[in-house]
């Protein structure tokens, strides 16, 4: 169970105009602007739910994921994940979650994927028998057999993403946070990733919160959608709630963004 | 759907020890380095010759002057070999801190924070710079040359002092690297002026610190405790002082890790990630 209540987070960002003179000036006197990444964000996600978290760039999606995974400390509000406060109880918390940042890799670049997995086994102190079992299952479902022995740098993006998913699930977490897991993937890889996430949710009852810009992801994966814009939750409901007639999901969401002016 | 994996595996309760995990990290780093064989050997060679040129500097200096403020050539070599070894050991093991600014900027520190282990251990593990054995080799050669020739009547206490110097000095430099890294939480960039305390100290540390005057000695005793791992124990080893307290002063320098760690913790709490 994930609960966020009136969570807010703001950043201080330095600003200056273009030009060399301005750059020099900003060395001595800097103007700051406060960006409110999250404003009173509240929602609850039950066990085993799959929730799509959508919103335009800079809406606060990543900030939310980072707060929920214990990376960032919110300025205010309460966050509880299975009774833990992520940023206060980091180590105990992250044992129970899996996180994938689509834009970053958690695998070691120069060595075969299996070596990275072996290291994760030690980081999470996974017992040999559960490691073996989990690895077998993940290899099977994600079709990793041929990939495990290649260095990460030689994998295609789609292949890498499948390995990333496996890496985040080796310790069998109950909750999975996915930050843009399908970004930049080709059609086949996208389908494979979606299919896998759905299976994982069904077989293990894993709670999944995923952010994405790909509305087909949402259509294929989640019944529930949370829409965030300019740091505020604008909508929390099902796909059917927002869909009108037979417009495509992209049109629906674009319409939604426009109507909320985000 | 039938689920062949529905049986939950038993969760491991025994935590992998920090040392074992660190060894694993080292193993991975070594394997990574092996991937680029040529680059690796060139780096080792380069590291060796960088320090070798410093050695040449000392050599030619003593061709002319024979002693610097009462220290003989072989004593200075002993001093330089010690500091070079300490610095290389620290740079090899604590390289993760030295290159920490890139970890903060690229956001890979986020990855560290979502793992259930201590952050320091993971940052240390992120980079183990094996190429520094080039420098160590240079230090070792100087030890081999200077130890029998520096006129020291070696006994157990003096050997232990030298060992303590190596331990204390490695800890001290690691602490400075940690502070350097912690600054990244506030500035995102590494602060180049911090190099004065690392590379600078290694370069100046080839001479016992009192060579630079009383003020530097005070600075090195009470502020950044270089003198504890270098000047005082060295005086004991080469017989300038027979205060037995000096044997243990290098171990006192290990305490420098405490403020370093506290500053690091302070930085981690201020961490505010970057990008998406």
In words, what does this structure look like?
The complex is a heterodimer of chains A (262) and B (276). Chain A is of the alpha/beta class and 262 residues long. Chain A has a single domain (46-260), classed as P-loop containing nucleotide triphosphate hydrolases (Rossmann fold, 3-Layer(aba) Sandwich), CATH 3.40.50.300. Helix content of chain A is 39%, strand content 26%. Chain A has ten helices and nine strands. In chain A, the strands form two sheets. In chain A, strands 5-6-7-3-8-9 form a six-stranded mixed beta sheet, sandwiched between helices. A three-stranded antiparallel beta sheet of chain A has the order 2-1-4, covered by helices on one side. In chain A, α7 links the parallel β6 and β7 (207-211). Chain A starts with a strand and ends with a helix. By secondary structure, chain B is mainly alpha-helical. Chain B is built from 15 helices and two strands. Chain B has helices at 18-35, 37-65, 73-93, 95-98, 100-106, 108-113, 119-126, 133-149, 156-187, 199-204, 214-222, 226-229, 231-237, 245-252, 257-270, and strands at residues 67-68, 71-72. In chain B, β1 (67-68) and β2 form a beta hairpin.
Could you give a quick summary of the protein structure above?
Chain A has 262 residues and is α/β, with parallel strands linked by helices. Chain A has ten helices and nine strands. In chain A, a hairpin with a 2-residue loop joins β8 (224-229) and β9 (232-238).
The succession of helices and strands of chain A, N to C, reads EHEEHEHEHHHEHEHEEHH
Largest sheet of chain A: 6 strands, mixed
What is the radius of gyration of chain A computed over CA atoms, rounded to a whole number of angstroms?
20 Å
Corresponding CATH architecture of chain A: 3-Layer(aba) Sandwich
Give the percentage of residues in beta strands of chain A: 25-35%
How does the helix and strand content of chain A classify structurally?
alpha/beta
**What count of domains describes the coordinates of chain B?**
1
The overall pLDDT average of chain A reads: 91
With strands numbered from the N-terminus, the spatial order across the biggest sheet of chain B is 1-2
> Termini distance of chain A?
29 Å
Strand order of the largest sheet of chain A: 5-6-7-3-8-9
Amount of helix of chain A: 25-40%
Form type of chain A: globular
Provide mean pLDDT of chain B, rounded.
88
Approximately what portion of the residues of chain B adopt beta-strand conformation? under 5%
Q: Helix content range of the residues of chain B, please? A: 55-70%
Oligomeric assembly: heterodimer
